[in-house]
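Hi support team,

I've been running sequence recovery on a batch of backbones for a student project. Most finish fine, but this one hangs at about 90% for roughly twenty minutes before it completes. I'm not sure whether the input is malformed or the queue is just slow. I've pasted the structure tokens below so you can try to reproduce it. Let me know if you need the job ID as well.

Thanks,
M.K.
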């Protein structure tokens, strides 16, 4: 993937949000939770606006959707978790650091959802951090050179 300017800062923001959730569960770091949540939400907004106004992302998402579904109108089965292209650690949805961060944030978000009544501010931050990682995965899938190459279609 051709790394875009927002990739590494957004990955750092997602990692910071995940680390703040983990520390917030163990230590009283309440003063840091709200600013990091706003930072994650702002990063989500910036990534979403970038995807919204970039025609390459639109074409890339459509091409990735066609590649993932094949000739089926509706997907009969979801990709397996061990699928080398679209699975949990597949090459189509991110490079190695993004995939690891996304998997950790997914587990962290699931745990905070279970115990969300205890600390709803941590649940919100975990969701925002996971959202940043998911938008980065979507950007990765849409900006792959093989997906945007007109010769492939």
């Amino acid at each position: 993937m051709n790394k875009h300017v927002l990739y590494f800062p957004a990955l750092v923001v997602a990692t910071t949000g995940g680390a703040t959730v983990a520390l917030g569960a163990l230590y009283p770091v309440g003063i840091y939770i709200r600013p990091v949540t706003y930072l994650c939400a702002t990063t989500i907004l910036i990534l979403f606006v970038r995807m919204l106004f970039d025609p390459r992302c639109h074409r890339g998402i459509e091409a990735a959707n066609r590649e993932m579904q094949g000739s089926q109108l509706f997907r009969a089965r979801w990709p397996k978790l061990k699928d080398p292209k679209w699975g949990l650690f597949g090459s189509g949805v991110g490079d190695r650091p993004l995939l690891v961060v996304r998997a950790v944030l997914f587990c962290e978000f699931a745990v905070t959802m279970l115990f969300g009544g205890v600390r709803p501010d941590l649940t919100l931050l975990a969701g925002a951090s996971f959202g940043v990682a998911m938008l980065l995965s979507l950007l990765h899938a849409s900006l792959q050179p093989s997906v945007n190459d007109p010769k492939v279609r």
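--
Follow-up from support: It reproduced on our side and the slowdown came from queue contention, not your input. The CA atoms of residues 46 and 96 lie 23 Å apart. No action needed from you.
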